[in-house]
Design goal:
heterodimer, A: 174 residues, alpha/beta, Glutaredoxin, 5 helices, B: 620 residues, alpha+beta, five-stranded antiparallel β-sheet
């Protein structure tokens, strides 16, 4: 009887260690939580263009085409790191619609940023008050979403995307 | 240069410990030489730590760690605290504190020589494990491969005086349990007399006091820095520190009560192993990046696996020794319906259930994610609904436990207690009736006041009041419990009776808080050495001459491009008035005011508990 009591801590230790080990080895990354939005419809949004306040983009405008949505800002340094990759994507997949959302940024700063580093996006939407990011459940910048032709979110990534992620996780979906 | 010194002394220190460890099985050192080597390796570890600190102080960006985590613009104190404001440095701090404990333990007298040596050998083993972890996965002395003249800065929320000292104090608690662990294991191996229990008691009290201080500092920091108006969020990292704290509390109480009963001795060994295991488990969860919070600096799977291995070895070794070498002869406990021993047993059972409940809530999300690939979070509602009810009977018992007898069911002058409990209940009920009645508020207040009252009655009726050191040592358990009572009142009031007011204001507006007029004077932005400050200035109680100034706002740290919120708090003895400046919309500022009654009681209670911890250390 008392033997079982004394064995319990060891058994509990084993269980905890096995779960932790599986967790660590499965490459689960806190930066990549399984999104509640995954495989859900893209949230309804409406945004004006950074360059022309009369030009408006809505959820319906990206239906029927594969779209990569990227939240960025001029003040976000990791965004700068991933920025060149979008040109690569652009070159490799001209069919893909690249939609950038400029997040909580003064217009002038955003324009200067895209002038200096180049503008890979088909459309740059303004998300000045962060409400669109809220709809998407953006945790922090940058964040990237892939939407399929049916308007479903099929991929989400928090933080700057890298060559690795592009190759192994995004490209298979394209 | 300092990086090289630091790295070499670290490697050398690990080498000495390794030498000590293997030499145990080859040849015996003389006492003098053994002590000398242990102390020398401790000093080397400290030298390594101070070399890193020196690199931070002089902003030596040729060190990669300094480059990543510091900036020449930072005030000196944050350069120093930057040493442990990152993963690598904090692990080195961990190891340094382990060395400090070994160093001081090597001076312990009145203890069997071979026992003392075995304890230190186990400490050496821990030093080796964590030292290798640092060298192979978290080396803070890497050379920066690019030439730079500026660093990348320190996480701004860590730039706070409270937080600068929070990690060393908290680690004092976590790592302090290592010595208790080593003592217990050595006790199992040698199992001679009970002298080691008294040594273990001192060290577990020291660790527990440090842990209390560390948790309180972290909690206080969260209270005024995070700007959420609360001081405890059941955040996984908080839970991790709470588990060894509760287990440590159980340990301290068991050690107070031990009178040679083998069953309690067994239990003490179990708790000693458990406390340190929980500390290492906490280190694992935070350092592996499994839990993301302000505490996790970087996620790296190899680190996680390494430290999981250490956790497995240490805990597995501990419990295995416990299994194989358990104290054999067992004489029965003197359990009565209500005496000291039965109170102790109940108290321990409750504390362990509470610890396990927190453990379950903390690891549950990991299990669920592994099994179902779903991310869930277990938060306040679970813990409030489980842990608090488990603790309540313990609190009730606590009020009378110190005056219970060892041998009989009798309680001295029990009528006095029953009568005062009834009067107190009626008073609190009346008070609750006139304020808005809340069940938890009623229970909390009654418990808190009852503990204070019962402890006070016990002091006055059981002892002669004298102002000598000995007297304070004797009444110390009651004082500790009064501290808990005060903290319970603070916790109850500040959580149950918190009041929240929201305003949209222009500069120059007057508004009403708690019957006092407050003037929103102006918004001011200033440039500080390493951040820009935006402050809303408020004048509290403008109609009086002695109106108080409150500043609430945000800081913007250009180096790391982060914004932190800075709550403005007006401290009064019976309440904190807590101002949070929100965003500006349509030229109006959003201002949130929280009235937190009796928050200061929490900190007062904690200070009393820590005082009691120290007094208990001084007691033989």
């Amino acid at each position: 009887m008392s033997r079982i009591f004394i064995l319990t801590p060891l058994i509990v230790l084993f269980i905890i260690c096995i779960f932790s080990l599986v967790y660590l080895l499965s490459g689960k990354d806190p930066n990549k939580p399984p999104s509640a939005l995954l495989n859900k419809d893209v949230p309804i949004f409406e945004s004006i263009s950074l360059y022309n306040s009369k030009e408006i983009i809505k959820t319906n405008d990206i239906k029927n085409k594969k779209t990569l949505i990227n939240f960025f800002a001029s003040w976000c340094s990791p965004c700068k790191i991933e920025h060149p990759l979008f040109f690569e994507i652009r070159k490799k997949y001209p069919e893909l619609y690249l939609l950038g959302f400029n997040h909580k940024d003064p217009t002038s700063d955003a324009k200067k940023y895209l002038e200096d580093d180049g503008n890979p996006y088909d459309f740059v939407g303004v998300d000045a008050d962060g409400l669109i990011a809220l709809e998407f459940g953006v945790f922090g910048l940058p964040e990237t979403y892939l939407i399929n032709e049916n308007g479903k979110i099929i991929f989400k990534f928090m933080g700057p995307i890298t060559e690795d992620i592009l190759e192994n996780e995004i490209e298979p979906l394209l | 240069m300092s990086s090289l010194v630091g790295f070499l002394s670290l490697v050398f220190a690990i080498g000495i410990n390794f030498y000590l460890f293997i030499s145990r099985y080859i040849f015996k050192f003389q006492k003098q030489k053994f002590n000398l080597l242990i102390r020398f390796s401790s000093l080397l570890t400290l030298l390594s730590f101070f070399s890193l600190m020196y690199a931070y102080v002089i902003s030596d960006f040729s060190n990669y760690n300094v480059f990543q985590n510091s900036h020449s613009n930072k005030p000196l104190i944050y350069k120093i605290s930057g040493t442990w404001g990152n993963h690598e440095g904090s692990m080195l701090l961990w190891l340094s504190i382990l060395s400090i404990f070994s160093f001081f333990f090597s001076f312990t007298k009145n203890i069997d020589e071979s026992f003392r040596r075995l304890t230190l050998i186990i400490q050496s083993l821990l030093h080796i494990l964590f030292g290798l972890f640092i060298v192979f996965t978290s080396n803070p002395f890497l050379v920066n491969s690019i030439l730079v003249d500026e660093g990348l800065g320190l996480n701004p929320i860590l730039q706070d005086p409270g937080l600068a000292i929070h990690p060393p104090i908290l680690y004092g608690g976590y790592v302090g349990y290592s010595i208790v662990f080593s003592i217990a294991i050595a006790g199992l191996f040698q199992n001679t007399d009970d002298e080691w229990l008294y040594v273990a008691k001192k060290w577990s009290l020291i660790s527990w006091t440090f842990l209390t201080g560390g948790i309180a500092l972290g909690s206080y920091w969260a209270y005024y820095e995070l700007g959420w108006g609360g001081w405890w969020f059941w955040d996984p990292v908080e839970n991790i520190s709470l588990m060894p704290w509760i287990a440590g509390l159980a340990l301290v109480h068991s050690l107070m009560m031990v009178r040679g009963e083998q069953a309690i001795k067994k239990w003490i060994v179990f708790l000693s192993i458990l406390c340190f295991s929980l500390s290492v488990f906490g280190t694992f969860l935070v350092r592996s990046g499994i839990l993301t919070s302000v505490h996790s600096f970087a996620a790296d799977a190899s680190r996680g696996i390494f430290i999981l291995l250490i956790f497995f070895i240490v805990t597995g070794f501990g419990f295995l020794v416990f299994l194989l070498k358990e104290p054999k002869k067992s004489n029965a406990l003197n359990l009565l319906f209500i005496n000291k021993v039965s109170a102790l047993v109940i108290n321990n059972i409750l504390m362990i259930i509470a610890t396990l409940t927190i453990l379950l809530g903390t690891i549950y999300p990991i299990i669920i994610e592994v099994l179902y690939n779903k991310r869930i979070s277990v938060g306040g509602p679970y813990f409030n609904a489980t842990v608090i009810p488990i603790m309540i009977p313990g609190f009730l018992l606590m009020s009378i436990a110190p005056i219970l007898s060892w041998q009989t069911n009798k309680i001295q002058s029990s009528k006095k207690y029953v009568l005062s409990f009834i009067i107190l209940s009626i008073l609190v009920l009346i008070q609750s009736y006139f304020l808005d009645f809340n069940t938890w508020g009623f229970v909390g207040l009654l418990l808190g006041f009852w503990i204070i009252l019962a402890s006070t009655i016990a002091i006055f009726s059981s002892y002669k009041i004298k102002f000598t050191i000995k007297f304070f040592q004797i009444i110390n358990p009651h004082i500790a419990h009064i501290g808990v009572g005060i903290a319970i009142i603070g916790i109850t009031c500040s959580s149950v009776f918190q009041n929240e007011l929201d305003f949209n204001l222009n500069e120059g507006d007057k508004f009403n808080v708690n019957g006092k007029t407050v003037l929103f004077e102006e918004i001011e932005t200033t440039n500080q050495i390493n951040f820009q400050a935006l402050r809303g200035k408020f004048l509290f109680d403008v109609e009086k001459n002695q109106s108080k100034k409150i500043e609430a706002g945000k800081n913007y740290y250009p180096v790391s491009k982060m914004i932190t919120s800075e709550a403005g708090i007006l401290h009064q003895w019976n309440k904190d008035i807590y101002f949070i400046l929100g965003d500006q919309k349509n030229n109006e500022w959003f201002v949130k005011v929280l009235i937190n009654p009796f928050v200061s009681f929490i900190w007062l209670g904690v200070i009393i508990m820590m005082y009691s911890g120290l007094v208990a250390v001084s007691k033989r």
